[in-house]
């Protein structure tokens, strides 16, 4: 046995590859050659335990040994040897020794070394092929061009070939027509530098990033759906192409490219996309306009006609006729309830813009933080709660008229943005970077003395000057009492029609009461009084209830009241309404409804007269 081991030791030493003799019964190395010592490191010696090099591969090595026992010899690449901190990938080949059944001869082949040798063999083979292989590739392209020229030129797609160096070998007729280059221009030259050198945005297109070059460098088929080729005249064309590697007797010879001009298709797609976006925008606008118009109809913001024959009404109608046919900005002033919205509607309906909507913006009815989105619109995600795109009132009024009611109630910071949008005739939605052109006529209205609002800083002077192109004044009802009979009859007809009943008769006594009343709420208050009278009148006579309002004296003209008297009377009326409704302003039966004015106007008057809850809650109120 000792003699056999000495012989095996000598045999191992003669092998060029790493070899060991292992006693499997004792897990001991009995012999090993220098190559094995070099591979396994300093711990490799006779008597060492071989399992020390197996690590986590011990279980796989046991399977390997079972195969060896069954077949007498075996090989595997599934067992790595742990040398120091490194796992060495090996191929293990083993055979049992016939003279010593408990001993095996194990050969270790380093896979990394095998791979390096294989690469060296391939490199040497390619190097030996040398110029002969390249010449064959060139001849291949020449033969291909000669044999298939008719087919290539008959194709509708552009086709060209490049060799493994990226130089052009052939170009068909369709490619020449699309690119403007001739065969003489391109043959033998790097075609990438001629037609594929830049992206559409101007960035340089390096050849090492080109999918066409990758086809013959990495033997890949590349399909590209949207790139550009550059014509000889410097114009780009949008193309889609397929780049395919080609071979000559299993030797990579280059690539062939088949492309088509998709410029017109891309332009059509862009036009279609633009059209779809415009349709979506118009649909959005129409939905918003429809919702707005439905709201306007349901709230009946104005009467159907301007009623009256007094000098102030005739003057008002003349002013409307003068300005309606123009696009001039109109500023309407007057007390609450004098019909400013009615005048704005009349101007719009008599204007060339009457086919487009009149968009009514109640500046005092929108929270200051929401006014910007109300006017300019928003896109989804512009702020928390913005769940969808929404056009603003400026966009909805495009081609029509924008009515800014109670313009002095606009937040000052929004006034500057509004003025800029109106002057530049474009609007940008919140959260968006794209501006939209607008064509809007503006009509503004103010209940308060406008010059005082400017002086107090509540209305920007530049916005006031921009709005005050054509001023229109709506006089209070007390200054045109001769119109009360016609107005009362008109309002009674409207109220009776809604109630589906015959209008009762307005007696002389009831009419005199209407004429004698001061009407601090103007026409709006008159409408409420007439409607209330129509409800309570069960017979054929109208019963007018003006509450405790004192009529004017018939025997002597009433004392001329100063502005302070009127404001004191208005303040007292506000306190009375608040006391009667326990402080509730809006809604049916609220203080605003009791006075016959909008809730927003009532709130603004509370602010104007600095009314506190203690005043209307006190016993003296």
Tell me about this structure.
The chain is an alpha+beta fold and 621 residues long. The protein folds into four domains: 2-116, PAS domain (Beta-Lactamase), CATH 3.30.450.20; 155-261, 2-Layer Sandwich (Beta-Lactamase), CATH 3.30.450; 300-475, Rossmann fold, CATH 3.40.50; 561-621. 44% of the residues lie in helices and 19% in strands. It has 23 helices and 20 strands. The strands form five sheets. Strands 1, 2, 3, 4, 5 and 6 form a six-stranded antiparallel sheet that branches. Strand 7 and strand 8 form a beta hairpin. Helix 10 crosses helix 11 (340-349) and helix 17 packs across helix 19. The longest helix is centred in the first third of the chain and has 44 residues, at 111-154. The protein is elongated, with a radius of gyration of 48 Å. The N and C termini lie far apart (129 Å).
Summarize the structure.
The protein has 621 residues and is of the alpha+beta class. The longest helix has 44 residues, at 111-154.
Task: Using the 3D structure, state the CATH architecture of the largest domain.
Answer: 3-Layer(aba) Sandwich
Report the top-level CATH class of the largest domain. Answer: Alpha Beta
Helix content: 40-55%
Per DSSP E runs of 2 or more residues, the count of β-strands stands at: 20
Low-confidence stretches: 298-304, 549-559
